[in-house]
Amino acid sequence: MRSGWAIALVLVLAACSGTGVEREGRVTAPSPEQTVRPSPGRVSKATSGRPVAQWLRAGGLAAHNLAASSPPSLVVYADGRAIADAAHELRLPPPEVKALLKALEHDLAGQPETASPRPGTPVVYDAPTTVLGFDGGGGMEEVAVPYLEAGGYDAVLVDARDRLARLAGRVIDEGHDYAADRLQLSVSYRGAGQAVELWPDDALLPPGTQAGSGAKTYKGDKALAIVRLIPRAGIWHFYRTSSGKQIALSWRYLLPHE
Length: 258
Hints:
The protein is an alpha+beta fold and 258 residues long.
């Protein structure tokens, strides 16, 4: 089991959304109601920034070779905030957080850093790796489980994943929208092809850093401008720059600890 939060997660997008239509002029911004706002709740920075449970999925193959930094499926913080997909938030009572950590410790304590399936289980190279973690007080302890969905693993690992998945579903169904004053914008530079809308502000684009893609963090007024220009978080939108380059853009809010 590995300690610490930092795991480099470069996920390949499983599906792309929309193609856009080329128009004269600039991108039309959504309504003014769509704004960057801090997440509700009065908590200290130290407390709100400490994750105590997590469920991530990393890797896998995708259509169109568009890579993006994907948010954790679920993060639970010491103060009871539970955030799913960096898009939905629900406050959990302290007894529920305590019970969750006790159950995760039972399932995950003593597991290796990377779990192995039973002998004879087929290898699924294009399936994501599931990362499950809990912090019982000594730092985040994580277990990586390659292609967990394919089966062949200890039941306790499946139990831990299912427990976190159920909670994530509840956060989505019962919680409210999560938003922050910081976000990450990902870009993929594409070859000529589909007709797309004109992107109005090249200064907001992150530099292409690897294989024609890149990502950058923005806050304050620049984050607000991105939210207004790109109407939905978590999916790809297609544009062309003033120099004629074709790009795909996707953004998400950053979590309290990121």
